[in-house]
Amino acid sequence: MSRWEPGAAERLHTAALELALEHGFAAITVPQITARAGLTTRTFFRHFTDKREVLFTGESVLPTVMAQVFASAAPDLTPMEVIATSLRDVVAPRFDGLRDYLRLLRGVIRSDEGLRERELRKRSLIAEAGAAGFRDRGLNDLEATLAAQLAATVIDVAVGRWLDEDTERPLADIILETTTAMQAVVTRPS
């Protein structure tokens, strides 16, 4: 394959994941990743700042996804209704067909402290975009921040449960179950 062929970032991501599964993430190098992908190290560094970044290629779409979450939410929905319906209707379908891949990726991320730290950055980006969306819906800064953190927690917990289960339950069902449990915890009298 030519190094100028489209899809270089995806090829580098696939090569890095394959090598990490074979040898462990800490043991692989950028030259090994580029060789597996049939690309040059210069091409690698045009797309990524370091080898950790290559496993987080989908992160660039997070602002767009969060914009869709809020664009799809009816204006009269409560923050928890926005979280439940938007995560179910906008976010869950993006995971269709990716369960096995996400299990592999999660295993690699869990095996490396730097990758776990990097994963937290992704969660932070989701929460930041969510807070902006909730502020646009009229919540004050504190309420918007709390609602966005709840949304990030719901998606983390729901996706984790979905990946852990041996059943083929749809992620959308687990998201609804998780938001219902979250709401029960938040509204439960002390």
Can you describe what's shown?
- This protein is 69% helix and 0% strand.
- It has 190 residues and is mainly alpha-helical.
- It has 2 domains: 44 residues, Arc Repressor Mutant, subunit A, CATH 1.10.10.60; 132 residues, Tetracycline Repressor, domain 2.
- α5 crosses α8 and α8 packs across α9.
- The longest helix has 24 residues.
Quick take:
This protein is mainly α. The chain has helices spanning 8-23, 30-37, 41-47, 62-72, 79-91, 99-110, 113-136, 141-164, 171-187.
Mean pLDDT across the residues is 91
Q: Note the total helix count.
A: 9
Total DSSP E strands: 0
Uncertain ranges:
none
CATH class descriptor of the largest domain:
Mainly Alpha
Features:
190 residues; mainly alpha; Arc Repressor Mutant, subunit A; Tetracycline Repressor, domain 2
SSE topology:
Elements lengths: L7 H16 L6 H8 L3 H7 L14 H11 L6 H13 L7 H12 L2 H24 L4 H24 L6 H17 L3
